[in-house]
Amino acid sequence: MRILLVEDDALLGDGIHAGLKLAGYAVDWARDGESARLALLDQHYQACVLDLGLPRRDGLDVLRGLRARGDGTPVLILTARDRGEDKVGGLDAGADDYLTKPFDLAELQARLRALIRRAAGAPAPVLRHGDIALDPAGRRVTRDGQAVPLSAREYALLHDLLAHRGRIRSRAELEESLYAWGEEAESNTVEVYIHHLRKKLGADLIRTVRGLGYIVGDAP
Ligand code: CA
After folding, report:
1. Of 1, 100, 122, 187, which one is least surrounded by beta carbons within 10 A?
2. Centroid of ligand 1 to alpha carbon of 20 (angstroms)
3. DSSP letters along 126-172, please?
C-alpha cells in the first residue's frame, strides 16, 4: 500500500512519515505542491495525505488538477485551515476527508484505513480469504485464528494481494505498491516474499499466473 504524503513542515512531515511507515505503508514524501502534482501523475497511490499551504503550488490546486483528469485517488486534507468554509471548499474540490492540525496520528491512520477500504469497495475492516485474516488496524495476520508473524514486506505484499482479491497483480504493480522512493526493489524480491508467504500461510493461498503475475482467489 503506497501513500503520498504532501507536507512542507519538516518536523510534522517526519512524524507522519515515520508513523505511516511503521504501520506498513510505503510512503513517498513530497515537500511542495509541484512535486506532489508530478508524483500523482507518475504513480498510483492507495491514498494521498495533502497539506494545503504549500510552496510552489497550493494543495487545493493539486487536488483540483487531480480530479479534473478523473483521477479518483483517495485524498485526505491535513491542514491548519480550520474554518468551516475551508473544509467545505476542500471537500467540494474533491477531497474525501479532512483533518485539522493539531491532530492525533492514530486518528489519521484510522481515517486512512477507512478511505482505502471505501476506495477498494471492501467495507469490512478485516480482509479475509479462506482461513486467512489480515487486520490492518492491528497490523496482524492470522491463519485459522492463530497469529502468523510476518516481516514488514511480507505483510505489505499480502495486504496488497488480499485488497485486490480476484485480480491478477503483476510484479511491477506489486513492486510499486511495496517500495517508496529511494527503496528500489532488487530483481527477484517479490518472488522471494511470495515464497515466504506460501511457506507460512499455505501453498495454495497465492497462485502464480504464468507471464502475468499473482492472484489470491479466482479471477472473475
Ligand atoms: Ca504547510
Report:
1. 187
2. 19
3. SEEETTEEEETTTTEEEETTEE----HHHHHHHHHHHHTTTS-B-HH
